[in-house]
Amino acid sequence: MLDFTVKQNNRAVWGFLLPLMLSGGFQYMYAVVNAAILGRAVNMEAVAVIGVCNGFNGLISNLFGGMASGAGFYFSRCVGSGQKERVDRRSD
């Protein structure tokens, strides 16, 4: 497990960031390919529905991603300040 409280070499940081960046790229490509396939197979109304749904999916994904990041910041602050009992109590 990487300990990001101490200085890491660039390879370790990129090993952590690369999967995150790739997953975002794949989600974007999925949305584009999905719209292209529906545009050819069905009609333009289906593409409009996909456009609306992609916005809603992005909203939900970003909402829960933000909540998870906020919880991660809270737990990291507790661990960094030596209050591990707060982490144990909150994670139940």
Labels describing this entry:
92 residues, mainly alpha
Describe the structure.
This protein is mainly alpha-helical. It has helices at residues 10-41, 44-80, 84-90. 83% of the residues lie in helices and 0% in strands. The longest helix is centred in the C-terminal third of the chain and has 37 residues, at 44-80. It is elongated and about 60 Å long.
Mean pLDDT: 81
The percent range for helix content is over 70%
Shape: elongated
Euclidean distance between termini CA atoms: 22 Å
Tally of helical segments: 3
**What Rg do the Cα atoms give?**
20 Å
Brief overview:
This protein is mainly α. Helices cover 83% and strands 0% of the residues.
Give the SSE layout.
Blueprint: H1 10-41, H2 44-80, H3 84-90
Helix pairs in contact: 1-2
